[in-house]
Amino acid sequence: MKLLHVIQHTSAEYLGLLEDHFDGRGIRYRYFRPFTEGTPLPARSATVDGLILLGGGPWGTVGERALPTLDEEIALTRVYLMSGKPVIGIGLGAQVLALAADGSAEAMPLTFSVGTARRAAPDSLNGFMPEAMPHITYMRDLPVPPAYAATLSCDEQGRTAAFQIGDNVFGFAGHPGFKRAMAEDLIMEFAETPENPGPALDQLSSVKGQIEDSLIPLMTGIIQKTGLMR
To answer: What is the mean pLDDT of residues 151-166?
Structure first.
């Protein structure tokens, strides 16, 4: 069975609806919580099949509130990139991935939004990238992928919503498996919260079915491209 290391940056944000898709395929995952005292990041020498970097609520990578473990996570991500193993970055994790791959990040205030991401090309993710899918962001700052990355989808402002590096590395500015309960827990976990989150929470509830439906083809494409079922 394949094993993934998953780095959490807050108690509230986890794989969410993605867990069911990994569980259903027999892909195991182990969470690491470096924000918890005495809990280290995964060892760079660990023999596992891939790395997932999750979002971080109000933590960012540039500006006033940079992730405390940023440098260590960039170094760890580069080990996976150089070894050719799959990496998936989500939200803050997509920023870490972009920085590790010689991209950058753009300073932006903490925002919580529910929008739509539209496919950039018909063959994205072997054709399994949904033509349109909910794009949920609860994040400070934005990932800027390196110039050599392929854009898989864009948000309503034309910014990169999902990108691919090489054959098996993916970044998502939003969380494709986000749950309303995760947003509520993030609001409770931190003193700093997005302004007026109520409308976004209601929107998130209204697109729950769309999120679940879009994950079926999306995860099919990701599993194919990462080779996690081989």
So the answer is: 98
